[in-house]
Design goal:
The chain is an all-alpha fold. The chain has 19 helices and no strands. It holds the Pfam family MFS_1.
Length: 388
């Protein structure tokens, strides 16, 4: 069982490395290619929209064919996205560059199911650790993605980042090779029934998990997407912004080694509340200055806050459905979560361009209040049910 979890860890790392590298480059390339600078984050927004759109088709593929064929399709999509990005950079075509975000987003959306696959191969007692361990594949991605950007950004002059995208296109190929060694559960029986999607969505446990995941990923993406542009406007180079994104990515996935243990010891809700508090602290630091230390510390706290909230939300989701309902529940959850992420990617560039960095930070706070309110609501429901 543990061997399967570590293989899934490696697959997650390879797929995530391309996404972390893209986070370093996308807004900068968009800013350079787009005539309207408020569209600098449009490629990220399109990628997140495609990620959202992938949720339901991915669920259908997983339900009919199983996990392995679905993950292979996701890897092929990520490879096609990197190659299309490369073509857009080579031709200096903003529209073509944006088109690359579609297959890249589809691949990223399918790769989000590695955490669900980890829950399926693990025993119930090991499940929280399995989910968080697979998500720590982002630690390797946090080192690999930005370092590839730094090492290859000027490899094919005069086309900045062209060589990077050609290298990133190789990572999904390695992922497919690893998938051949993973033993994954078969698809659920075709005759399996279970509740309809509308009934699953109406469950308090599902609502709490989906809203928490939505807030965790949406607030993180809102701030992360515009950070390289803000750093550029403050006079920092590509290397500095890549380092900050690297700090952020390590902070996102590094706690995964202990998040599962924290949930097992203290419960999922206290861990989610701690994540919301860390995200609020990120906002406070982001508003207090724009030195390299401010950016690095703020994005580090943002990453840890995201980890606590998102891993907690994933564990809550596992309690919101029966085994035969898992694919429907997971697809519905990721549609909601990544629909929100797509919206924040659209908003990030527009709010940053029109209202500034301070306003962009402040927009995070109402979402955190919403997440804490939902957690308190479900806690109150549980207390009343126990008393009854």
């Amino acid at each position: 069982m543990k061997r399967q979890v570590w293989l899934l860890f490696c697959c997650q790392a390879l797929m995530q490395a391309a996404t972390v590298g893209q986070a370093v480059m996308a807004a900068l390339i968009g800013h350079s290619l787009a005539e309207d600078k408020s569209l600098s984050t449009l490629p990220v927004a399109i990628q997140m929209t495609a990620t959202m759109a992938a949720s339901i088709p991915a669920g259908m593929v997983f339900a009919r064919l199983g996990r392995r064929p679905g993950f292979i399709l996701g890897a092929l999509g990520a490879m096609a996205g990197s190659l299309t990005f490369a073509a857009g950079v080579w031709m200096g075509d903003f529209v073509l560059y944006c088109l690359g975000a579609v297959p890249a987003g589809l691949g990223f959306g399918i790769a989000q199911h590695y955490r669900f696959a980890a829950a399926e191969v693990a025993s119930p007692g090991y499940r929280p650790r399995a989910i968080s361990l697979v998500m720590t594949g982002g630690i390797l991605a946090a080192s690999l993605g930005p370092e590839l950007v730094k090492a290859t950004r000027d490899s094919l002059p005069p086309y900045l980042f062209l060589g990077t995208y050609l290298v990133l296109a190789c990572l999904p190929v390695l992922c497919i090779a690893l998938l051949s060694q993973v033993r994954l559960p078969p698809p659920p029986p075709r005759h399996a029934s279970g509740a309809r999607v509308s009934e699953i969505i109406a469950r308090p446990a599902f609502l709490t998990a989906a809203i928490t995941g939505m807030v965790a990923y949406g607030t993180m993406n809102l701030l992360m997407t515009s950070t390289p542009v803000e750093m550029m406007l403050c006079g920092f180079g590509v290397g500095a912004s890549a380092t900050v994104i690297q700090i952020h990515a390590v902070a996102m996935y590094g706690p995964g080694f202990v998040t599962g243990r924290l949930i097992a010891r203290f419960g999922v809700r206290p861990v989610i509340v701690a994540g919301a508090a860390l995200t609020a602290l990120c906002v406070a630091i982001g508003l207090s200055g724009e030195s390299f230390a401010h950016f690095g510390l703020a994005l580090g706290l943002l990453g840890i806050g995201w980890n606590f909230m998102f891993v907690g939300a994933t564990n809550l989701l596992a309690t919101a459905h029966a085994p035969e309902e898992r694919v429907r529940a997971q697809a519905a959850n990721d549609t909601i979560v990544f629909g929100t992420v797509a919206c924040t990617a659209f908003l990030s560039g527009a709010v940053h361009a029109e209202a500034g960095w301070a306003v962009l930070n402040l927009t995070v706070l109402p979402a955190l209040i919403l997440a804490l309110g939902v957690i308190a609501w479900q806690q109150l429901r549980g207390t009343r049910a126990a008393a009854g």
